[in-house]
Amino acid sequence: MAGGVIGQRSWDASGLGDRSSAIEGSLGNVSAFWMLCDPDGEMDCLGKTLASFTGHRLFAWSSRLSAEAVAPSEADAHVYFRRSIKRAGLKKFPQMSFVESSYSSYLDFGSEAQEALKPFLSRNSGYALGIGSSGADPERWTGAAQLMEDHFSLAYDFENTVELEAVRRKSVALYVSAAIVMGFMPIIPLNRHPLSGHVIFCPAESYDRVAGELAVGDRHFSTTEAESSEREIVGFFAEGGDLAYL
Q1: Eight-state DSSP code of residue 205
Q2: Which residues are paired to 8 by β-bridges?
Q3: pLDDT classification of 85: cutoffs 50, 70, 90
Q4: 203 in helix, strand or coil?
């Protein structure tokens, strides 16, 4: 499967069984594309995905813990909004009592964007990535991605429990749904078991258009029927695969 793209016209949990994550079944009218690659080719794989959407804009949210509140700064070329909030709890890293969030956008996959993607590649739970049109409203991205702030808080501010982990998974599903409604295609990395890569989500009615944009270059695109694609995804889960952040 390495180096391939699996198109999933309908994000349907019914055939994936209990090996799939709890985000399954939470998304209606949503399609997905699975980009699979070897771990050492992950940045190249992500670059190919982003390069497929010429004329679009890359949006990112990142969050980090800090010892004190950071005063709002002037927006730079990429970061259009930044804020600090008091942490709800201090179970982890109690000396870092604030969370700083940054929202940014990029017009191309240049060196600055690649530098900003490092948290995505390290599977940092305080990170979200999406693709929008060139004229997409940044405030709409803020509205969608801020749902991941709750996920980050649950991951760092409180002692993990089975119940809390379930809430975190639902937060990711809510973020994916909201991002699509807001006009973005959210991207979530895979957990590197057994392969690296990512999944890009889009509205079901956009499946054929997005498939056409992705089926370029030297990528192998799976145009198999749903049953065959489902078998490949089930096989990925059976070998320990899953979405990251979950």
Answers
A1: G
A2: 32
A3: confident
A4: strand
To 10 degrees, the CA torsion angle through 53, 58, 59, 60?
120
Separation of CA 33 from chain center:
12
Q: Are strands 4-8 and 220-222 parallel, antiparallel or unpaired?
A: parallel
Strands (E), 38-190: 56-66, 79-86, 98-106, 127-133, 185-189
Residue 236's identity, in one-letter code, is F
Cis peptide before 194 (omega within 30 of 0): yes
Q: What is the pTM of this model?
A: 0.86
CB 144 within 8 A of CB 130: yes
Residue 65 Cα distances to 20, 60, 97, 124, 149, angstroms: 31, 17, 7, 12, 12
- Nearest alpha carbon to residue 86 among 78, 77, 74, 94: 94
Which SS3 state, helix, strand or coil, does residue 25 take? coil
Q: What is the DSSP string of 129-171?
A: EEEEETT--HHHHHHHHTHHHHHHHHHHHS---HHHHHHHHHH
Angle at 114 between CA 177 and CA 4, to 5 degrees: 65
Q: pLDDT for 25-76, tens place per residue?
A: 567 789 999 998 988 888 889 988 988 888 899 999 988 877 777 766 655 7
Phi, psi of 183 (to 5 degrees): 100, 20
Read off the tokens for 15: 């055939």
Distance from chain centroid for Cα 135: 21
